[in-house]
Automatic annotation (TrEMBL), chain A:
GO terms for molecular function: iron-sulfur cluster binding; metal ion binding. Residues 5-34, 35-64 form the 4Fe-4S ferredoxin-type domain. InterPro entries: 4Fe4S_Fe-S-bd, 4Fe4S_Fe_S_CS. Keywords: Iron, Iron-sulfur, Metal-binding. It comes from the Bacteria. This is 2-oxoglutarate ferredoxin oxidoreductase subunit delta. Pfam families: Fer4_9.
Length: 64, 380, 270
């Protein structure tokens, strides 16, 4: 399985709410203390849900 | 060519003065004894392509006027004491956001509903200190229908020049009285338009003061200038700040822009009648000054050297001239249709330089010349 | 390329002031996409708000922005729109701001059917002052001023807007991110008063007092209680108990206020 998108995390903006990680259908994201990180990049299906639901403008989904 | 003349009510003169000054937006709410201003504006404004809106309450009327002003329009609202009480929240907003607008207050008694159809002069201090926080105030008080016209024009000029709310205070007597009015020709009275920014849109800051008394130009929403407006303490760029030095500078500048000597000289306007050799001054404003003038004539006929000092600009108060007169005369008599408002301002200024006595009435009846004459004779 | 939000945001203004997990940022992103879809020009668009957490939104947006006094946004916006009808006017704010202190202005803006889009972020609480109950706090819920549970019934904002005369009324939640921009865009395109209620979460002052373990819990509730209007029509009253209807709830073509006033001007000028 290969990633359909590259996820960019702007750590400076992330407030660690975990909405993105929780609702990611393929569990690409994980919480790392107070910021989110890409833990399973290859599983990304480019659904964009994490970006849409990030309240803090901290996620950008670049479709490949 | 003979001038156009008409017999008009003060409130009508006010509305026509506003149109002369270039007002294109009126937001109002009905209240006695100011309602005729709204009625005439509803008729006149659409004729010149302007907008009249009757809002859901006094606060909304004030809000609409500030919103419209930010698009570049000259804006007016008209109300009376209780309505001004409601508007105070947003009069403060217009002060801090430095948004020009004119507020007509056709004064009646109070507190609360009081006597809606009776005259009063009870809003002198409300005009100065009604909204919370430190702020400057400009208020003018015409005494005749002709002067309501010209002072309304001047109120717009001051609002635009100093970028702030300006209040026009006259009481029910002048508001509902009918007098002959000569209409000034276009261009006869000075009309000041809002200064436009000269910098590029990228460099524009809505509160970018060049000095501690400066009035920076206000751009219009919908132009090429884009900016933020807030009621919070803000920096030059218009965005909120809690930085002590910036807050302090802005708070002081917004007062100094009106109260520095140059601005006072520009804003203050007084009438002096037989003051030069006077032993006693009757200091009166608005309709009460008409009784005072009559009293001066009567007293002079009796050999008493009386004079009338009439502030047309109430705020900023003519401190310097009143202080001079206090040193010149034996007494100042101050009639006003309240239980003592301006008299305390005069007391603060003249201290013990001369005697000071008031004539006060709050029963919905005007102060008559006889009352003033009696007080003058008692004081001297 | 990822969607570029920052072209609509004033340089240097992020990160925003909202708490971790507050949905206001999700709504702001939806608003940005909607305004983009509708092609609203920055210089010709005013965003007006009152006071409160949601009312801080305009400060971030690179448009003509007006952060007014508590509750007064709709009245200020009415002045802007009347004076310059060619401008697009967006109003945003919270439930306390819009339906308590600003309730009168809200219903009268609806009644006039003036062409503006009111995005009402309903997080059921006064957040900025620390969590006092609002007209939208559920009965029984805890707030800092309802320590024994809220005795007040709630306002249904959308029903209020419809009853008052708004001609486009829609509702969604902060969880339903793609629906936010679709509905706001429809509201912007609609000629007349449009109200888009976005049911939102306040984890800091509402969630922690009302037994939500996390932001994610609150989002799950938004997800589970939302029922699209089409689906709701096939459900029983019992099944709809405790649910919120989402989607376009009401739409009607009616004369718009500024257009009506244009006719007043035409009549006055004979």
């Amino acid at each position: 399985m290969s990633a359909k998108a590259e996820i960019e995390i702007i750590e400076r903006y992330c407030k660690g709410c975990a909405i993105c990680a929780e609702f990611c259908p393929t569990k690409v994201l994980e919480m790392d203390a107070f910021v989110v990180k890409v833990a399973n990049a290859d599983a990304c299906i480019a659904c964009n849900q994490c970006e849409l639901r990030c309240p803090d403008f901290a996620i950008k989904v670049h479709k490949l | 060519m003979a001038k156009k003349v008409a017999l008009l009510q003060g409130n009508t003169a006010c509305a026509l003065g506003a149109v002369y000054a270039g007002c294109t937006f009126f937001g109002g709410y009905p209240i006695t004894p100011s309602t005729e201003v709204a009625e005439v504006m509803s008729e006149e404004l659409p004729k010149v392509g302007g907008k009249f809106i009757q809002m859901e309450d006094e606060i909304a009327a004030m809000a609409s006027v500030i919103g419209a002003s930010l698009t570049g329009a000259k804006t007016l609202t008209a109300t009376s004491g209780p309505g001004v009480s409601l508007k105070q929240e947003l009069i403060g907003y217009a002060c801090i956001a430095e948004t020009p607008c004119v507020i007509i207050n056709v004064m009646r008694g109070g507190p609360s509903t009081g006597m809606p159809t009776g005259p009063g002069q009870s809003d002198v201090m409300q005009a100065r200190w009604g909204t919370h926080g430190d702020h400057a105030a400009i208020a003018v008080a015409p005494a005749s229908c002709q002067e309501i016209f010209s002072e309304t024009v001047r109120a717009f000029n001051l609002a635009e020049k100093y970028r702030m709310p300006v209040q026009v205070l006259y009481d029910e007597i002048v508001g509902h009285m009918r007098e002959r009015i000569e209409f000034p020709e276009p261009g006869e009275l000075e009309v000041i338009d809002r200064a436009a920014p000269t910098c590029s849109p990228e460099d524009y800051k809505p509160y970018d003061a060049k000095s501690d008394t400066d009035v920076p130009p206000l751009a219009a929403f919908g132009s090429e200038y884009r900016f933020h407006v807030t009621g919070l303490n803000k920096a030059a760029d218009g965005f909120p700040t809690t930085k002590a030095s910036l807050v302090d500078f802005e708070e002081r500048r917004q007062i100094a822009k009106v109260e520095c000597p140059e601005a006072r000289a520009d804003i203050e306007s007084n009438e002096e009648y037989l003051c030069d050799d006077a032993d006693v001054i009757i200091l009166a404003y608005g309709s009460t000054s008409r009784s005072a003038r009559y009293a001066v004539n009567e007293l002079r006929a009796e050999g008493i050297k009386a004079g009338l000092f009439r502030p047309i600009t109430l705020w900023p108060f003519p401190e310097k001239r009143v202080a001079e007169l206090g040193k010149q005369v034996k007494a100042i008599v101050l009639p006003e249709m309240n239980l003592g408002q301006m008299i305390f301002e005069v007391e603060r200024i003249v201290k013990n330089d001369c005697k000071l006595a008031g004539v006060h009435r709050v029963d919905g009846e005007p102060i008559n010349p006889g009352q003033i004459i009696d007080q003058v004779k008692e004081v001297i | 390329m990822a969607y570029d939000y920052e072209k609509s945001i004033r340089p240097g203004k992020l990160p925003h002031i909202w708490c971790p997990g507050c949905g206001h940022g999700i709504v702001m992103k939806g608003l940005i996409r909607a305004m983009d879809t509708c092609g609203l020009e920055k210089n010709n668009t005013a965003i007006v708000s009152g006071i409160g957490c949601a009312s801080r939104l305009p400060g971030y947006m690179d448009f003509c922005t007006l952060h007014t006094a508590h509750g007064r946004a709709a009245a200020f916006a009415t002045g802007v729109k009347m004076a310059k009808p060619e401008m697009n006017v967006i109003v945003c704010g919270g439930d306390g701001d819009g339906t308590a202190i600003g309730g009168n202005h809200f219903i009268h803006a609806c009644r006039r059917n003036i062409d503006m889009t009111y995005v009402l972020l309903n997080n059921h609480i006064y957040g900025m002052t620390g969590g006092q109950f609002s007209p939208c706090t559920p009965t029984g819920a805890k707030a800092s001023t309802t320590p024994y549970g809220n005795p007040d019934p709630i306002f249904d904002i959308s029903k209020l807007a419809i009853g008052a005369g708004a001609t486009f009324v829609a509702r969604t939640t902060a969880f339903h991110a793609t629906q936010i921009d679709k509905l706001i865009a429809e509201g912007i395109k609609h000629k007349g008063m449009s109200v888009i209620e976005v049911v939102d979460d306040c984890p800091t002052t509402y969630g922690r007092r009302n037994k939500f373990r996390s932001v994610v819990d609150m989002m799950k509730v938004l997800k589970d209680t939302a029922v699209p209007v089409a689906a709701a029509s096939k459900m029983t009253a019992e099944q709809l108990e405790g649910k919120i209807l989402t989607g376009v709830l009401y739409q009607e073509d009616k004369p718009e206020y500024c257009a009506q006033y244009k006719q007043v001007i035409a009549r006055a000028q004979g």
